[in-house]
Amino acid sequence: MGKSLQISCIMLLFTSAILGQDKSFIDNFESYTAMPREVVTLHLNKTVFLKGEEIGFQAYVFEKGTNELSLQTKNLYVVLLNAKDSVVKKKLVLMENGFGHGTFTLDKTLKVGDYRIEAFTNWMRNFSEKNHYSQQIHLIDTNTPLANHMVDKDKGIDAQFLPEGGHALAGVENTFGVIIRDSNGYGVSNAKGLIKDKNDRIIADFKVDNFGIGRFLMTPRPNTEYMAFVDVDDQTHRFELGPFRSKGINLQVTELEKTVGIVFNKSGFQDETFDLAIHNGLNINVIEVDFASNPKQIILIEKENLHKGINIFTLFDNKGNPLLERLYFNFDALKDYSFTKIKAPAVKKDLDSIEITLAMDDINLEKLSRLSISVLPNESLAYGSPHTVASYLHVIPYVRGNVQDASYYFTDPDNKKKFQFDNLLLTQGWSSYDWFSIENKKPEYLFDFEKGLSVIGQDNQKISKELFLHPLENNDFKIFSVDEESNTFIGDLLFPYEDEVIRVSDIGGQSLAKAAAVYLRFKPNAIPKANWQNDTYNGLKNMYTVLQAQSLLSGFQGFQEIITLEEVNVTANRRMERLKKIRDRSSGQVFIFGENDFRRNLFLDDYLRRIGFGFGGGFQQGPITSATDGTIPLLYVNDMILNDFDNLDMWRMDEVDYIEINRFGRRTGALHPSGEIRVYTDPSLARVNFSKQNPYNEVQVPLAFSRPKRFYNPKYNNYSDAVYKAFGAIDWHPNLSADGQGNVSFKIPNLGLDQAQMFIEGVVNGNQLVSEIKTIRL
To answer: Which keywords label this protein (predicted)?
Structure first.
């Protein structure tokens, strides 16, 4: 009865301590975590590649702690590094609402072997925790045997016996976590072991799981030696166990149905009062632990009162020193953040393609949703990522060591997997949040939170008053006022793609725009070097399976040689075909301008006058008016309504893709009595020599955003050979969104295969994570 009363009182202290506690470590933690963090993860189309293939990736950026999509992030750096940590490929990826995607081509200049793909934001460089993404990949070549660049499996093992919380205490029951790994760091599956004392008596036994992880209980006697005996492949390996403290505190965490129990045993300590901190890297709660009445204290905490996902338990003495730490994962609170309602795929087969439709119940079309899907042969060995989006978000930022296959625990987690995951966290020891750093090395604001590019301009001739920045695909036109004293101007929120140039015109006091004699500096102007502290990357979870398949390479029949047409002609034809389709479905007039159309030599105001529009007092003094009745139509530029008509006379027709005019405004969904004009621009169409005096300066951007491109998969000579089925790809589809009925549809090439696997990752309904593997019959 006394023990149950004691437990109840401790449960009541949970709330009062949270509200009233004022310890220095709390202030230190809140100061340390005051600057918001992000976590980035990538979904790769696979992790083992043949030369000539592409890496396809979808990026997801989240707010750390809240696990919500990061809506503010725009700039994401993605780099490919070789085994010497040299950058061999790099991209600046434009993020929108937490999503972005891109590709890397693995050309013939790259050597076979290990590579690492990393993704990070500039802001992440302010912090020491592992909030960035880092994943090992392998590049193989049919002319180079895998054994030359893959690890070999041997029989050497390493065993660690780790007391729960960090300390083992003699005379009381302790929980030990067990990790048994081979010489390459991979778990030795299903190994068995015994714990014996010096008299060869068996004290405990254990069996590790398929990742080489397990646990056992034992009550060690003071001043007694213990040994662990581990049997692997008919060999017995011997390891010393200990040390065991005679004075100190230990802990044991036990998961119950709706609560989590934490048992503390104290021996030899004079202090009676301690503090148990519970945090998730963002918020911290504290419970007082008082040993005055009993050296054994039991705390029960309702799971609904714990943080969602990761919880880090740390016990502090009365001087604020951390003594013990244990990681625990609260699966129950994550139920609402997992989406598992993707129905069986519907397959519609055509002669050269196959359409696949995924139906999703309970999807809210008003909230952000994106999926990325890798489609591989059913026999594929090439998908070796140890993480899903969920496991990377919830695990990697909080642990110090590597996790061999975190995706296993987050794929249909049942009680067995939850117990195995708890064993993994038990063996991780202290979290990535180092309390010495929390107290003494608070993050410094050294690296900016980047939103696009900033530009600082210098007017070399000191005569310009206003400068006009011509529109980009992701930017409308901008007007910059030049400071009269410094002759400089500053602009930001620029999002140029790599194939675009910045065009600047001087419009101050001029009847016509002219080239501006300015010097522009951009920030950022190069991909930064990220020097992560104690950085580790994630290896492949199926390394040995890939190694065993090396004999397949000798039979590979290679890729087909692709003959391409003249790119310029193909691009021009496709543009005219697209514009013809736009004209056919428009209810108004669509004006299209060919390559040598004389109208491309005009400015926009001149052209609109020719087709029946006037201007109230001139372009800069009044709105556009209809020449027939004087009414004012709506004006849209790239589907954005324009209310300010100043400076529109600077727009050149050679940058216009097409103009759609509807005299009755039917595009808006409601009739507008004066109609509407819609102007669509494409800066890539601009002529090099528009006039005798070029009306703008062209400036190359040293670092621009990578334009997302359609995933390219080389054509294999034989889709039935073993190499293709083991290492090849069928297709990759990033950034997929649902239609009005909640369905996601996409097409893959019909390669004559009977079955395929789909690896589906993503976020739906704003914050629900999707991680599924589905086998489909083709």
So the answer is: Receptor
Longest distance between any two alpha carbons in the chain, whole Å: 108
Contact 343, 744 (CB under 8 A): no
**What pLDDT is attached to residue 34?**
94
pLDDT bin (cut points 50, 70, 90) of residue 572 is: low
> Against a cut of 0.90, is the pTM above it?
no
How far apart, in whole angstroms, are the C-alpha atoms of residue 68 and residue 368? 11
Beta 48-50 vs 133-140: how paired, if at all? parallel
Three-state DSSP at 715 gives: coil
Q: State the pLDDT confidence band at 667, using cuts at 50, 70 and 90.
A: low
Q: Where are the beta strands (DSSP E) in 141-241?
A: 157-163, 174-182, 192-197, 202-207, 213-218, 226-232, 235-241
| Angstrom distance (rounded) from CA 728 to CA 48 | 9
Across 133-151, b (16+ Cβ under 10 Å) vs e yields bbbbbbbbbbebebeebbb
**Radius of gyration of the chain from its Cα atoms, rounded to whole angstroms:** 32
Contact of 38 with 70, CB cutoff 8 Å: yes
In contact, 124 and 102? CB cutoff 8 Å: no
For residue range 277-327, list pLDDT tens digits in order. 999 999 999 999 999 889 999 999 999 999 989 999 999 998 899 999 999
> Rounded CA gap, 326 and 332, in Å?
18
CA torsion angle for 583, 585, 589, 594 (degrees, to 10)?
-10
Structure tokens at 421: 């995951």
Give the phi and the psi of residue 282 in degrees, each rounded to 5: -130, -50
Q: What stretch of H or E contains 312?
A: strand 309-316
User: How far does the chain reach from its first CA to its final CA, in angstroms?
Assistant: 65
Measured CA angle at 310 (ends 73, 205), to 5 deg: 145
Closest CA relative to residue 182, chosen from 232, 243, 126, 108: 232
Name the residue with higher pLDDT: 220 or 666: 220
Burial zone of 239 (CB within 10 Å; 0-12 exposed, 13-18 middle, 19+ buried): middle
Amino acid at 552: L
Contact 446, 469 (CB under 8 A): no
Q: List strand residue ranges (DSSP E) for 390-481, in order.
A: 453-459, 466-469, 478-481
How many other CB atoms are there within 10 angstroms of residue 366's CB atom? 8
Residues with Cβ within 8 Å of 69's Cβ and at least 6 positions away in sequence, in order, are: 60, 61, 62, 63, 97, 98, 99, 368, 763, 766, 767
Q: Which amino acid is at 553?
A: L
Rounded to whole angstroms, what are the CA distances from 679 to 79, 223, 641, 696?
Answer: 37, 86, 10, 21
Distance CA 147, CA 550 (A): 7
**Mean pLDDT of the region 355-382:** 90
With a CB cutoff of 8 Å and minimum separation 6, the contacts of 292 are 272, 273
Task: List for the chain the helix, strand, coil content (%; round to 5).
Answer: 20, 40, 45
For 517-540, write each residue's pLDDT tens digit. Answer: 778 899 999 999 887 765 566 777
The mean predicted confidence, pLDDT, of the chain is: 83
**pLDDT grade for 758, boundaries at 50, 70 and 90:** very high
The closest alpha carbon to 473, from 688, 685, 659, belongs to 685
Please name the residues in contact with 717: beta carbons below 8 A apart, sequence gap of 6 or more: 557, 558, 559, 560
Nearest Cα to Cα of residue 74 among 52, 48, 51, 100: 100
SS3 19: helix
**Tokens linked to 700:** 């190359």
Domains of the chain: 567-689 (2.170.130)
pLDDT digits (tens, 9 = 90+) for 425-475: 999 989 999 999 999 989 999 999 999 999 988 877 666 677 788 888 898
